[in-house]
Amino acid sequence: KVKSNNLDVKVAESELETEEKGTEEESTRESDSNILDVSSDYPREKHVSIQRHLADLEKLADLKEDEKKTCPLCPEEKFKACYSHKLHRHLQNLHWKVSVEFEGYRMCICHLPCRPVKPNLVGDQTLSKMGAHYHCIICSATITRRTDMIGHINRHVNKGETESRFITVPPPKSSYEVLKESATDVQVLPNYSTPHKTDSYFNPKMKLNRQLIFCALAVLAEERKPIECLDAFGATGIMGLQWAKHLRSSVKVTINDCNENSVTMIQENCHLNKMKVKLNTKEEDNDEAMGDGEENTDTIEVTKMDANVIMHLRSFDFIHLDPFGTSVNYLDSAFRNVRNLGIVSLTSTDTSSLYAKAQHVALRHYGCNIVRTEYYKELAARVVIAAVTRAAARCNKGIEVLLAVALEHFVLVVVRVLRGPSPADDSAKKIRYLIHCQWCEERIFQKEGNMVEENPYQQLPCDCHGSMPGKTAVVLGPLWSGALFNTGFLRRMLFEALQYGLDEAQPLLKTLVYEAECTTSKHFSTHSPYEETKQEECGVYIKTPNTYAESYLVHGKRKSDEVIRNAAKRQKSENSAEHPAFYYNIHRHSIKGMNMPKLNKFLKYLSKAGYRVSRTHFDPMGVRTNAPLAQFKTILMKYSTPTYTGGQAEGPLHLAEGVQAGEQVQADGKAEDAEFLEDDKSGVTAATFTKDYPTHCAAD
User: Fold this and answer.
1) DSSP 229-292
2) By C-alpha distance, which of 316, 354, 358 is closest to 335?
3) Which three-class secondary structure state does DSSP give residue 578?
4) Who contacts 364 (Cβ-Cβ below 8 Å, separation ≥6)?
5) 3-class secondary structure, 319
6) Is residue 590 classed exposed, middle or buried when 0-12, 13-18 and 19+ CB atoms within 10 A define those classes?
7) Which residue range is the domain that position 595 belongs to?
8) Does a structural domain hold residue 597?
9) Strand partners, 414
10) Is the pLDDT reported for residue 443 higher than 50?
11) Is the Cα torsion angle 511, 513, 519, 525 positive or negative in sign?
12) 299-303 and 318-321 as β-strands: parallel, antiparallel, unpaired?
């Protein structure tokens, strides 16, 4: 009996021990599950395969010349220890080159036993099945294929999950580099000029673009104060800082960026320029928090959200869009809440598609069919304006083009918003197709109307279809067929550029004024244009002192709208002389074996023939004129001289005409040379042109 009692006690003790072990295991499981949940919510250290630079991987291996080291991302069974030079090649070729990049980090391929293995595999089978994989920087998932990893990251981005759950260490402040532009300091990373390798992208070549946008904003700030302006893609915040630093209380600047590192960089740059910062990362309307008064002077609001979101939530007077590549994805939200008579400016850097190098991309993004022509830069500007017009019309808004610039690196378009269905209809009617002859480069916009013509070649002034076999013309578009410039606005932009000392923008703005007026006149006044140019802008009401219209604005919105509408009707009748569309390149239509006249003399000959003529910023050797191509070539042939006097069998008529033209030029010679002597002394030659735009108009 005693033995049986002892056995019962031992059995009871063993049962208690097993129960205690079970409860401990359950508690450890619960704690493990809690730890997993916490780790999924809170940041944790990133995996060793996620690094910024190749040197960071080498630091993990602790490379030394005289010692053998193992690879930090491979098990010893797969890659044995070796010397530093061999391990460096292994890390570079096997891990780094096949990595996946995201926000400055590289997710290198990993061969460590991180993935779970099937339980039925034993021995060497487990080693063979534990293949290479990647660790996601956002959700810590392990994925085997590189293409699947890229798709996995893209799905995170589409869902808006771009914040890493790992602990990211910011780069040391000693690596920052401080740059200065227009009395504004910005600090950037050493690789600031490469957009795919840094969050603080800064392009020094876009200085001219920033100065033009600043001049447009300064003109708007003179019309009404204060105005709310938005830089939708801040990056370093250089543009918004220039607005706030120079225009002060006239503007309320909001700088937005969806990247957290860029937002941090913008805040630091604001403190560097002694500006107050108001941070807003919530996707809600905070107009009440801004308030009015002196407390917002020199205060910049920095937001962290998607550009489409902030433009849907808030209203602005001035919006600038400068994304990577095309900006068509943001046009609908930009025109949704922009205020009446506000300004939307956009910079498109997808020049490969706009300049007809990738025509299928232009068709996909802009819905336009284009080919490479001699006037391809102006064609690109009209393609962008057509997309802007359609986006504005969908929001019952019309546009007035104030400025269109196409240079080597970008296409800049600045438009004013006119609210209402009538301006939207008027703007939409200016989108038309273009007929372009591929033989002689003649072009003309199709006639308005929906009726199908039997022979559309009859609209072209040339006769290439009758003399050449096959189809000689193509239809391009749809394109903007209206004006590209507003003379009054450009004059006021030039005045602001002179006032703030923007040296790079002044010669280009002078050229644009002459191009908008289609004149070669060198007489230009630099006094304030706000009083004399009130009637020059079509459809725009400008506040000027001592005007009779201001007395009507106090009676209410309807009365002010009537004043603006009547002024627009009056200005449309007064501004009937619009600059001609497109231009001709004088070298493209030169005659073989003949010396062309100097470009400025040729402009004078065209003007004497009764045509409007000017130079263009799109092409240093381009001529904007309303003369048909046949007359253009005739005048060019008339004033060209032969390169030699010895006759040949080919083209005797052309040489004879050239000789007669040369004798006529010598007969007229002295009087005409005396007229152009001053121009030649002042450097008005083709050599004074820069690579992107002419600067000969800078001489007053």
Assistant:
1) EEES--TT-HHHHHHHHHHGGGEEEEEE-S-HHHHHHHHHHHHHTT-EEEEE-SSS--HHHH-S
2) 316
3) coil
4) none
5) strand
6) middle
7) 583-642
8) yes
9) 345, 403
10) yes
11) negative
12) unpaired
- Coil, helix or strand for 683? coil
Task: Please give the backbone phi and psi of residue 34, each rounded to the nearest 5 degrees, phi first.
Answer: -65, -40
> Quick one: pLDDT band at residue 196, thresholds 50, 70, 90?
low
pLDDT at 572 over 80: no
Length of the chain: 700
Give the whole-angstrom CA distance, residue 584 versus residue 645. Answer: 29
Residue 507 CB contacts under 8 Å (≥ 6 apart), including other chains = 693, 694, 695, 697, 698
Please tell me the total count of domains within the chain.
2
* Alpha helices, H only, 291-375: 307-313, 331-336, 351-354, 359-366
What CATH number does residue 628 fall under? Answer: 3.30.56.70
Cα–Cα distance measured from residue 682 to residue 695, given in angstroms and rounded to the nearest whole number: 12
Cβ-based neighbours of 116, under 8 Å, separated by 6 or more: none
Rounded-to-10 torsion of CA 587, 591, 596, 602: -80
Most confident of 157-171, 182-196, 367-381: 367-381
Closest CA to 474 of 433, 506, 509: 433
> What one-character DSSP code corresponds to residue 95?
I
Confidence class of residue 469 from pLDDT cuts 50, 70 and 90?
confident
In a domain, 627, yes or no: yes
3-state DSSP call for residue 315? coil
Q: Is 28 helix (H, G, I), strand (E, B) or coil?
A: helix
For 75-97, write each residue's pLDDT tens digit.
877 787 788 788 888 888 888 88
Residue 182 lies in a domain: no
In one-letter notation, the amino acid at residue 613 is V
Which pair of tokens denotes residue 312?
A: 């849907």
Closest by CA to 220, choosing from 344, 393, 313, 332, is 344
665 and 639 in contact (C-beta within 8 Å)? yes
Which residues, listed in sequence order, are joined to residue 51 by a DSSP beta bridge? 106
Residue 595: inside a domain, yes or no?
yes
331-334's contacts with Cβ under 8 Å and 24+ in sequence apart are 331/387, 331/388, 331/391, 331/392, 332/391, 332/394, 332/395, 333/307, 333/308, 333/309, 334/232, 334/391
Query: What pLDDT does residue 577 have?
Result: 57
684 in Cβ contact with 600 (< 8 Å): yes
Residue 166's pLDDT band, with cuts at 50, 70 and 90, is low
In the structure encoding, which two tokens stand for residue 275, read together?
């500006």
How many Å apart are CA 100 and CA 96, to the nearest integer? 9
Residue 261: name the closest of 368, 105, 444 by CA: 105
Block residue for tokens 């007077």: 317
